[in-house]
Specification:
By secondary structure, the protein is α+β, with helices and mostly antiparallel strands. 33% of the residues lie in helices and 20% in strands. It contains 15 helices and 25 strands. Helix 4 runs parallel beside helix 6, helix 4 runs parallel beside helix 15 and helix 14 packs antiparallel against helix 15. The radius of gyration is 24 Å and the shape is globular. The N terminus and C terminus are likely disordered.
Length: 596
């Protein structure tokens, strides 16, 4: 079904949503939640990323978990504890300062989400209001069997999920079937609440001190220092986001949300709660630029399993469990303003040639760190064979458009084949190098102008920002004229005010009227400038793109340059992955011209 039509029976949540830049994100790898400045958990799907939402206020649905100062006269703020997805919401009220520390407990259980919240009276006594209404299946299943235990905890059911809340013994049921309470905390004190949502009844203790301690240790172990990068704190943040988006299966969802609009009322709103193989490769390659950290192994494992299972019929995207994506369907929600209310994604049935090239680059990056086992090496050979069999076919490409002979797809494969041949050194290396030469020759003959400029496709002479990535990573030598010419054309035709767009959608309209700047492409531009040895220029592109994050430091897919607003689903994994790679290569410990 198409988005844009809202049945009369759908009613919006009581509170209108915020602009995307104002949301914070907490996650445990198996699911993630968005927190708004009012202290409301406005989006959480459980038990898995692609499950129905239990809190769906982001899209105008019922279900909420809110903790906010009782004094409505307040100014909000917040921050992340460095190198973690432990977030602290903070409000300055008329007579004090109140904060709420929040996180999804880790290590995570796939069938059980544990949400930790701690109200603190930073200055003056704190008085905060709590409201809880867990509603499974996008708000369609209200809480039932609500009861208080002898120990003061609350239990309930919602659909097939079991709910427990501790720390709110004085709460009272409200007329909508939820819970309400007023929390009072003396100055300098703290009050803990633990919410558990599970697929089966749970009876184990919910000790907030032990849960917080385990969560703090997990994040300390999961995120490296990144001291040699260009922007250490933001790099650690990017690494934390990628950790939060990555399941124990190794699959990393593209984003935590669905249906957030890229452009208002254009139908460009999609479900990104699935694992795109390309995004997974970007994350692994970005991590490898820093070192052999665990996220690299998880990316290699997930991509290897998908290749060994599906071969040259590899899908662009899967669930984090490795299953095919469901088709699109309409949700019983109003939708974010200007967006739709869809779930599922049709991209899972496309042929995208560049995915094989990115997989080859991922495996080569792992091999450089001696992190490619025999199973992954076998998967790499499968990917190379897929390129050999299918590189001449039209594909839908990186941007999932019409089937055409996209230049980016082929240059990605050229780079992947050459890197794999160099790093593995197997008897097949010569065959892979020869195949790379054939693909390069065929692509040059169809997609390159006489002055060296690489055009978008065999039948499209326009500029394409995505081409900067394979060129920067080494598809051509850094001194090759085609890198300089192509980058100059992208800068001339696809940039505005220091931000970079994908391609020109419409020759008759300014870039920003057709879509937002693509933050991924801004980092690609920085990498390309760095590959040319133009480090000052690279730093300018990097810093300009880095400035487009939201209040909490998160990036969406696009940036509306005129309005200084984020667009699209949040947080967008591949943007954080590209920041990670860019920061490593531009930092003082990075390799000049990129890792070769």
């Amino acid at each position: 079904m198409t988005s844009g039509t809202t049945p009369p029976s759908r009613t919006p949540a009581a509170d209108s949503p915020w602009v995307l830049r104002d949301y914070a994100f907490i996650a445990d790898g198996e699911r993630g939640a968005l927190v708004d400045p009012r202290g409301q958990i406005t989006w959480l799907c459980a038990p898995a990323w692609h499950s129905g939402a239990v809190f769906s206020g982001l899209l105008g649905g019922p279900g909420r978990y809110q903790i906010r100062p009782a004094d409505s006269w307040n100014v909000w703020g917040g921050y992340y504890e460095d190198g973690t997805l432990i977030h602290v919401s903070r409000w300055v009220t008329g007579d004090g300062i109140v904060s709420c520390r929040e996180a999804l407990a880790v290590p995570a259980d796939r069938g059980r989400v544990v949400l930790l919240r701690q109200v603190r009276a930073v200055r003056g006594d704190a008085c905060a209001d709590l409201g809880l209404d867990v509603r499974a299946e996008y708000g369609q299943r209200p809480m039932t069997d609500l009861r208080r235990d002898d120990d003061g905890g609350w239990r309930a059911r919602t659909g097939g999920l079991h709910v427990r809340l501790t720390g709110a013994g004085d709460a009272r049921p409200d007329r909508n079937g939820g819970l309400r309470a007023r929390l009072r905390v003396p100055e300098g004190g703290a009050h803990d609440l633990v919410l558990e949502i599970a697929t089966s009844p749970q009876d184990g203790p919910l000790d907030p001190r032990a849960l917080w301690s385990a969560t703090e240790r997990w994040w300390a172990d999961a995120v490296p220092g990144c001291s040699g990068s260009a922007a250490p704190r933001d790099t650690r943040m990017a690494y934390a986001v990628l950790n939060g988006l990555t399941s124990s299966t190794g699959g990393m969802v593209a984003a935590a949300t669905t249906s957030l609009p890229e452009r208002a009322d254009t139908g460009r709103d999609y479900d990104y709660r699935y694992a795109w193989v390309r995004d997974q490769c970007y994350a692994g390659i970005g991590v490898a630029a820093h070192g052999p950290h665990p996220l690299l192994d998880r990316a290699v494992d997930f991509v290897s399993e998908r290749l060994l299972a599906d071969g040259d019929r590899l899908r662009p995207a899967y669930t984090v469990d490795g299953e095919p994506l469901p088709g699109e369907w309409s949700l019983p929600l109003v939708g974010y303003p200007g967006g739709g209310e869809r779930a599922g994604n049709r991209a899972g049935h496309q042929f995208q040639l560049d995915v094989f090239g990115e997989a080859l680059q991922l495996f080569a990056a792992a091999a450089r760190h001696d992190a490619l086992d025999s199973r992954a090496a076998k998967a790499a050979a499968v990917a190379a064979d897929a390129v050999a069999a299918r590189w001449t076919e039209p594909d839908t490409g990186l941007w999932e458009l019409d089937k055409r002979w996209w230049t980016h797809s082929r240059l990605s494969c050229v780079l992947g084949l050459r890197e794999l041949a160099r790093e593995l050194g197997t008897p097949r290396a010569a065959d892979w190098s020869a195949l790379a030469d054939r693909v390069m020759a065929g692509t040059r003959s169809r997609c390159q102008r006489s002055d060296g400029f690489w055009q978008r496709a065999a039948d499209d002479p326009g500029a394409e920002a995505a081409l900067l990535l394979p060129l920067a990573r080494g598809a051509v030598p850094p001194t090759d004229r085609s890198l300089a010419v192509t980058r100059a054309e992208v800068a001339r035709h696809l940039s505005d005010d220091g931000y970079v767009y994908r391609f020109r959608q419409d020759a008759d309209r300014p870039l920003g009227d057709a879509e937002g700047a693509f933050l991924l492409c801004g980092y690609m531009m920085a990498l390309a400038a760095h590959a040319q040895g133009r480090d000052v220029e690279a730093a300018r592109w990097f810093e300009r793109t880095r400035s487009s994050c939201g209040t909490a430091g998160l990036f969406a897919e696009e940036f509306d340059v005129a309005q200084r607003q984020l667009r699209g689903n949040l947080p967008q994994g591949f943007v954080h992955a590209m920041l990670l790679e860019c920061s490593a290569r531009l930092g003082p410990s990075g390799l000049s011209g990129g890792e070769r």
